[in-house]
Amino acid sequence: MAVRINCSIQNTLSLLNPPLSSLRFRASPLKLNPQFHFGQNPSRGALFCTYATTDITPSNAEPFVLTTPLYYVNAPPHMGSAYTTIAADAIARFQRLLGKKVIFITGTDEHGEKIATAAMAQGSTPPDHCNLISQSYKALWKDLDISYDKFIRTTDSKHEAIVKEFYSRVLDSGDIYRADYDGLYCVNCEEYKDEKELLDNNCCPVHLKPCVSRKEDNYFFALSKYQKALEETLNKNPNFVQPSFRLNEVQSWIKSGLRDFSISRASVDWGIPVPDDKSQTIYVWFDALLGYISALSDDQEQPDLLKSVSSGWPASLHLIGKDILRFHAVYWPAMLMSAGLSLPKMVFGHGFLTKDGMKMGKSLGNTLEPNDLVDKFGTDAVRYFFLREVEFGSDGDYSEERFINIVNAHLANTVGNLLNRTLGLLKKNCQSILVVDSATAAEGNSFKDNVENLVDKARIHYENLSLSSACEAVLEIGNVGNSYMDQRAPWSLFKQGDTAAEAAAKDLVIILETVRIIAIALFPVTPSLSWRIYEQLGYSRDQFDAATWKDTKWGGLKGGQVMAQPKPVFARIENQTEVEDKKSKGVAVGKTVKSKGKLKLKQAQEVAGA
């Protein structure tokens, strides 16, 4: 069942962070047993503003700090990583449209045994391997139009300094102690496993590989001490973890009893050394989570934990996959409490992606490579499909057939064709010049009210992180625009001349204003397509870049404004069967480019700035 969040992010994010004095604890020394055999080890109402508002966001407002996970560099980026980042980018772009100061953080997690092993398998060194994979993430983010503000690498020197300072604060709180650990360890998960959760032959249920027996002398974090504080935090702030069914998971984990966890490794060399103990390195998760704070530090200054915190912490929103929910909703808050720092305002755990109804994997030969998708279909198509078709928070499925059908129907037909045929009529009958302001053209016309109501719906859905519903509302604007065009039939009115032709010219202004509003409202999802639309409407790049959500208000187009020559703004995707069928009938086929599957992509005319 689709899950929707019913509270706006503005209302939700103001509820957290009780006074630190109620969260900070001073621990008495713990009595230790010679060894620990743990039974469990965790794995890694809408705020609505009318357009009467003159200033969307006060200049002294807190920044909106948004994070993706720091992606593990054992392998190049996959579609799951791309999905999280595309969603984060859409949210960041929407918040910027509202006038917010946004700090969008992403990056790479580069320490740990698995990284060293992956580097060795490639005949490389860990630093060289990390440089290569980290760069591949940056390249993909560029191809996907990801507008991040901070890219942190856990091998950055400023990050290491802040991790060590944080570690010392937790140590000073009495929450780090030394003890032996004897258990079964999954190298791929980089964590100890409880025997009860393993499959036959002690295989990890995630990676399906046998865990190895290990006994280590490690440093531990006293997570159990924060059980009551975490319970109280979730009870007082139920929106801290979203969607709500993820909150239920977290509460269940905590209720079952929290156990202290190892935060160092004696057998892993590729990591940040524990302060005052070079024989141990800090556990990758204790290390990587601090990237959300170290990213806030200025590259030109001496790294300082509190100075970084003052630059934007706490985060407004952590976006993560559900598989790392426990680290972000249990471990991380407890660590922050121990260090006397504020908690993030919301942790949102989205679902997994499948392909043709099946879990993806190299062994099944059905992996979904984001670079291949972008090469075949383009950035806008990839962004739109996953944000429109996957209910944010739930699992979602990709199939090539549905991808083509959705993208063609929504972007090529509903939006692109509406713009193209309207501009064609304007060129033929009005020399591509608007005869009147859009505000005047729509006077007394209820169509304008319908569009504005749908814009309001889209805004509320964006605020509530209901990205699929936001796309739906914007697409509905396109649907009503097409219906208006068909009902009014301006091509017929132009033939009648006189007042009918005057009415037709006004109708074209109304439809083009509708498409202009679509471009702004869909910008968080398809930024390049939105620019191509604006360019067709005669705007400069500077005018487009200056647009805000207030520009979704009716009345942007002005009389006398000259439209560009009609060109397709989005290429319709044709499958191989369609191409061959057209050829057999002697129908002209647009220039196509072969792709890896049975698809060919019809090329639109070159559009400047695309």
UniProtKB/TrEMBL annotation:
<dbReference type="Pfam" id="PF19303">
    <property type="entry name" value="Anticodon_3"/>
</dbReference>
<dbReference type="InterPro" id="IPR015413">
    <property type="entry name" value="Methionyl/Leucyl_tRNA_Synth"/>
</dbReference>
<dbReference type="InterPro" id="IPR009080">
    <property type="entry name" value="tRNAsynth_Ia_anticodon-bd"/>
</dbReference>
<dbReference type="Pfam" id="PF09334">
    <property type="entry name" value="tRNA-synt_1g"/>
</dbReference>
<keyword id="KW-0436">Ligase</keyword>
<keyword id="KW-0648">Protein biosynthesis</keyword>
<comment type="similarity">
    <text>Belongs to the class-I aminoacyl-tRNA synthetase family.</text>
</comment>
<keyword id="KW-0547">Nucleotide-binding</keyword>
<dbReference type="GO" id="GO:0006431">
    <property type="term" value="P:methionyl-tRNA aminoacylation"/>
</dbReference>
<dbReference type="GO" id="GO:0009570">
    <property type="term" value="C:chloroplast stroma"/>
</dbReference>
<dbReference type="GO" id="GO:0004825">
    <property type="term" value="F:methionine-tRNA ligase activity"/>
</dbReference>
<keyword id="KW-0067">ATP-binding</keyword>
<keyword id="KW-0030">Aminoacyl-tRNA synthetase</keyword>
<protein>
    <recommendedName>
        <fullName>methionine--tRNA ligase</fullName>
        <ecNumber>6.1.1.10</ecNumber>
    </recommendedName>
</protein>
<feature type="domain" description="Methionyl/Leucyl tRNA synthetase">
    <location>
        <begin position="197"/>
        <end position="423"/>
    </location>
</feature>
<dbReference type="InterPro" id="IPR041872">
    <property type="entry name" value="Anticodon_Met"/>
</dbReference>
<dbReference type="InterPro" id="IPR023457">
    <property type="entry name" value="Met-tRNA_synth_2"/>
</dbReference>
<feature type="domain" description="Methionyl-tRNA synthetase anticodon-binding">
    <location>
        <begin position="441"/>
        <end position="578"/>
    </location>
</feature>
<dbReference type="GO" id="GO:0005524">
    <property type="term" value="F:ATP binding"/>
</dbReference>
<dbReference type="InterPro" id="IPR014729">
    <property type="entry name" value="Rossmann-like_a/b/a_fold"/>
</dbReference>
<dbReference type="InterPro" id="IPR033911">
    <property type="entry name" value="MetRS_core"/>
</dbReference>
<dbReference type="InterPro" id="IPR014758">
    <property type="entry name" value="Met-tRNA_synth"/>
</dbReference>
<dbReference type="GO" id="GO:0005739">
    <property type="term" value="C:mitochondrion"/>
</dbReference>
